[in-house]
Structure formats: structure tokens, C-alpha cells
Amino acid sequence: MSLFIKLFSLAIIFFIVAPFVFSSAQAASLNFDKSTATAANGETFQIAVTVDPGSDALNSTDVYVTFDATILKATAVVAGSLFPTVSNDLSTSGTVYIAGMVDDPASSINTTGTLATITFQGLKDGSATLAFDCNTSKIIKNDINASNVITCSQNGTSAVTIGSGGSSGGGTNPTSEPVSELPQSGVFDNVANIAIPGIILLLLGSIFRLVL
């Protein structure tokens, strides 16, 4: 086989493999430190919001946590240690807004950590789900375009039961019984992550056969 054909074949294989390699980079996402939480009616409990930068370096994040305001009330937000500057807004019913940012763009965030801890109070017996509004939440990469790198399918949720649980009264989780297990998201992503190394190895084997 001529050298030209070999190089041409290698170039084609590279362009096939490259998208899989680069797309398999870890995604940036938001999560809670607890997947479930319980409290008595009138009692308070805490849940932390965490930020996973994935394979990116971050400058800031805007987080909107949503919940059923008939079941829960957000009473306080305490800043975590991930970002040096953290602010919050509890004025909107059913939503907690938390913003985190670096003081110096040269000191970007590249590790997973706690953005803030929210204190909730149970208002009545019922079940609800804490979630992130991905239409408004952002995870901002440290680049000249301030790219939003959040991957909504990787964001977590937290199932909350107040008192004996029961109907949530038309809220975000209107089930009649407490949630014992959260639905798993990102299943396709996990399958793809397992399959990609096998595809790459297969193509690399083809490359060696062409070169040798």
C-alpha cells in the first residue's frame, strides 16, 4: 500500500474518532448533597448545592433551585467555600437564586465543591422535589466568550418528604407516597461512555493494520 493511501486512511480515521474523544469529556453540572431528605411538619433541614466543573475551569455560576412552595419554605442560604463571592435571593416563592463568582479571572474554579447550603422549613405533610431550572441556571466557563457549559441531563434532584408524606397538593411531585428512589438520568450518556473506549480501540487496531 502506498504512503499516500496510508496517510489518507489515517486522516479519515482521525476525523471519525476525534468527535467521540472530545465529546467524552466530563460535563459540568449541578447537584445536591442529599438525594433524599425528611423532616417533621414545621421543622427545618439543610441541603447543600454543589457544582461540578467537569473538565472545564469556571468563573461563575447562576443557580435557580425550584420547589413546591406549598410544601416547603426556604428560610436561609449560607455560602459554601467553592466560590469566594456568593450571593442569594429568597424573594421569589418556590425558587432560590444563588450566584457564585471568582474575584480574579486568573483564579478559576476547577474542582467540585459546595456553592451554598439552603435551609428549608416544612410547611405541611407532603412530598416535593428540589430541582434546578436549567432554562435559567448557568455554569460559566473561564473563556473569552463566557460560555455556558452546564449539561442539564447531568443535574441532580432531591426528593423531600415532610411529615407522613402524602399528596403534594399539586406541586412538583404530586405522588401519594414518599419517593424512595429517584429516576436515573443520563443512562444513554453512561452507555456511550462505556462504548466509546471500545470503538476507539477497534479503530486504533484498524490503523495499525493499515500502517503495518
What does this structure look like?
By secondary structure, the protein is an alpha+beta fold. The chain has two domains: 41 residues, no CATH class; 157 residues, Immunoglobulin-like (Sandwich). 22% of the residues lie in helices and 34% in strands. The protein contains two helices and eleven strands, in the order αβββββββββββα. Strands 2, 4, 6, 7, 9, 10 and 11 form a seven-stranded mixed sheet that branches. A four-stranded antiparallel sheet has the order 1-3-8-5, with no helix packed on it. α1 runs antiparallel to α2. The longest helix is centred in the C-terminal third of the chain and has 25 residues. The N and C termini lie close together (10 Å). About 17% of the residues have low confidence.
Primary descriptors:
single chain; 212 residues; alpha+beta; Immunoglobulin-like; 2 domains; four-stranded antiparallel sheet; Cohesin domain-containing protein; signal
